[in-house]
Design a protein that fits this description.
This protein is an alpha/beta fold and 390 residues long. It folds into 2 domains: 184 residues, Glycogen Phosphorylase B (Rossmann fold, 3-Layer(aba) Sandwich); 191 residues, 3-Layer(aba) Sandwich (Rossmann fold), CATH 3.40.50. It has 14 helices and 12 strands. The strands form 2 sheets. It has a 6-stranded parallel beta sheet with strand order 2-1-3-4-5-6, sandwiched between helices. Strand 1, helix 1 and strand 2 form a beta-alpha-beta unit. The longest helix is centred in the N-terminal third of the chain and has 21 residues. The radius of gyration is 22 Å and the shape is globular. The relative contact order is 0.13.
Length: 390
């Protein structure tokens, strides 16, 4: 049986929704299912400026994508999976691709699933343009998936039939560590506490608060701190502190210079990390920090990955984070301001037993709730057997 996957993958930076889709693509391929990928174009939001030439190239790429979608309607497909963007432009782009690839097909001959990874829809109201466009797309589908119970209720309020909404939590590409590894890691044999922030550097995801917290930290006596800031600077409509790439870059560089003036605290800047390189960051890190205020935060893969490798997590209550972590697996901040982030990191630096306890709690939660085989089983039943698994 063959499935078509329609999704957007940026050329630069990290996309949680693209990563989640590719886990499904690879996992179902390993289980013997054939797949076709239709990659929809995305604008590069990590660039300092977006020129007219960039927009023209985007339009040409979009035209090519629509032609490919129209050609795919002649393929024999058992399932179509659409990772839906949630801006009006992205929904129109993905909706047209879905329409063209299903034109002339009998609805009973295939299963269509729309997957939602962000939570921009949480800001819509029932009668707005976005909600109407969204309902038009969902009418052509059997199911729409979301990441947690809070998101499911929002979708029902927007007019999506409850029977169509299926909760499928995110999952990590990694198998994770074991308890013995985590306990050994947190013994800090080399007297260095390693702290990690890994995400797209959108200011509302909390990287300024992270850097300010690192700048204000003093390690316990006899210890040093090695912090890492990993991810591309990204300006979005949900950025608040910085209005341009250059402004954010200058601020980051200045803050790193101040931090690295300390003899006991060092900060390393990385533009990105993938695969084994990213895994190594998690394996070394004792504390993972994502103090997000991002309005359309969903269920960040990076938090799940950090739990998989026994990092003590500091995060917030936005999106589906409350369904991802609890007080046994993270320090959860209602208000992730600089002072609270600093205090949370300092507490974990000073209290070895608490840090190890939270790290082991996160590993246990990862193993129980974010099992990759269970995740793939859910998608296999949904797409090829038309069954919903709890």
């Amino acid at each position: 049986m063959k499935a078509l996957f329609i999704y957007s993958k940026p050329k630069k930076g990290f996309s949680g929704q693209a990563a989640a889709t590719e886990l499904i693509v690879e996992g179902l391929s390993d289980r013997g299912y054939s797949r076709i990928k239709l990659l929809t174009p995305a604008l590069d939001r990590t660039a300092s400026k977006i020129s007219l030439l960039v927009y023209l190239f985007y339009l040409l790429s979009l035209t090519k994508c629509f032609l490919s979608a129209g050609f795919l309607r002649f393929f024999n497909l058992a399932a179509i999976h659409v990772t839906l963007g949630q801006t009006p432009v992205a929904m129109l782009r993905d909706g047209i691709c879905l329409f063209l690839s299903t034109l002339g097909r009998r609805p009973s001959s295939f299963v269509c699933v729309v997957a939602l990874n962000g939570s921009l829809f949480s800001e819509w109201h029932h009668g707005c343009l976005e909600a109407r466009l969204f309902r038009w797309i969902i009418k052509r589908c059997n199911y729409v998936t979301c990441l947690g119970a809070k998101h499911k209720e929002i979708l029902v309020e927007l007019g999506i039939p409850r029977s169509k909404v299926v909760i499928v939590p995110n999952v990590s590409e990694y198998s994770g560590a074991n308890a013995e590894f985590v306990q050994t890691k947190h013994e800090l044999g080399d007297k260095v506490i390693r702290i990690l922030f890994l995400s797209s550097l959108i200011d509302t995801k909390g990287f300024p608060e992270y850097l300010e917290a690192i700048h204000g930290l003093s390690p316990p006596e006899g210890f040093k701190i090695h912090a890492t800031l990993c991810g591309p600077i990204t300006i979005t409509p949900y950025s608040e502190r910085f209005k341009s790439f250059d402004e954010a870059q200058q601020w980051v560089n200045k803050k790193i210079s101040l931090i690295n003036g300390s003899p006991s605290v060092h900060l390393e800047r990385m533009e990105q990390a993938k695969g084994i390189e990213k895994q190594a960051l998690y394996e070394k890190a004792h504390i993972f920090v994502l103090p997000s205020r991002y309005k359309v935060e969903a269920q960040p893969l990076v938090v799940i990955e950090a739990m998989a490798f026994g990092c003590a997590v500091v995060t917030s209550t936005v999106g589906e984070l409350p369904s991802t972590v609890d007080d046994k697996s993270a320090i959860i901040l209602e208000d992730p301001n600089t002072l609270n982030v600093t205090q949370a990191i300092a507490t974990l630096c000073d209290d070895h037993e608490l840090r190890a306890k939270i790290a082991l709690g996160g590993l246990s939660r990862f193993t129980r709730d974010f099992n990759r085989e269970r995740y793939l089983e859910r998608w296999e039943h949904l797409m090829f057997k038309r069954q919903i698994l709890d």
